[in-house]
Design a protein that fits this description.
7 strands; 341 residues; single chain; globular; seven-stranded parallel sheet; transmembrane helix; Rossmann fold
Length: 341
Amino acid sequence: MVSLSDVQSSNAQIATTLPGLVAVFIGATNGIGEAALKEFARSAKSPRAYFIGRSQEAAARITAECRQLNPEGEFIFIKADLSLIRNVDAVCREIQSKESSINILFLSCGTIRSGEDTSEGLHNMPAIQYYARTRLITNLLPNLKQATGLRRVVSVLAGTHEGPIDVTDFQAKNMFMLRLRGHLVSMTDMALESLADQAPEVTFIQDYPGPVKSGLDREANTLLAWFIGFVLMIIGPLVYIPTRESGERHLYFATSAKYPPRVRSDAIEASSGVPLSEGVEVANGTDGKVGSGVYSIHWSGEHAGPKVVKLLTGLREQGMKEKVWQHTVGEFDRIMGPTDV
């Protein structure tokens, strides 16, 4: 486990090691995304952050709080419903009209609504937690590659909780919740590995945030989701990771050299992130190799163990990486027309 003191020590070096960062936070008007954004504001020097969500009221409050934490920073809100791919593309165009390079793309948008389709024909839950996130990364990948120094993607879902992928139901329309989680987590790993092939100089992380009070339960629309929300209401205060600690740990994931890209620039030391404290080692990637650029990590900061590595190896041997990417691009093309992804 990466200790909280090591996390805090690393974050304290961001201002001197990684000045002038440009970051994009997707789903940052509550919960984990808001906590990570605030820690970014607290720790970075002269940063510029775009944050995307659905609540203008929450955004006004968060903007004021971030400016108080860091008067030298810029904090720009973009209101959008990212369950629709066309809205994802519009958000990316707006950001790209203002920024040529991006250092951090942090994705925590999500929902627990299930059993519904968007107007674009995607199952609501994976529409936000898989398709929208993958589209955001794909669209903004040129900007990440263009960055000097740190280049990183962090997707908050359920890393280390991978499961089988059902090729007959990529959209998970006919799955129970627990099976759906493992399916989407493994699909995300496969997509991130495909994206890393296109941009080996970028780090890709999928993490499990642990039990954090996020506010997703307010969107419950099934008996199971309501039951989970009820249980958490009772036991949550006993098991929740403190919101501030969650923000600190996610900022660490976004900036620490524990998670370097597959290809590092010797000329730019910061391309790997904030240097490691004594005793902290570089993580193993999803392929089981040290520092291989794509990481599935636990909230504690440790990488997935041999059981997950074995499962993912089996999926690759089945050609699942190519199958997932072909399906994903096919859905994007169906919705938006053919692209170069």
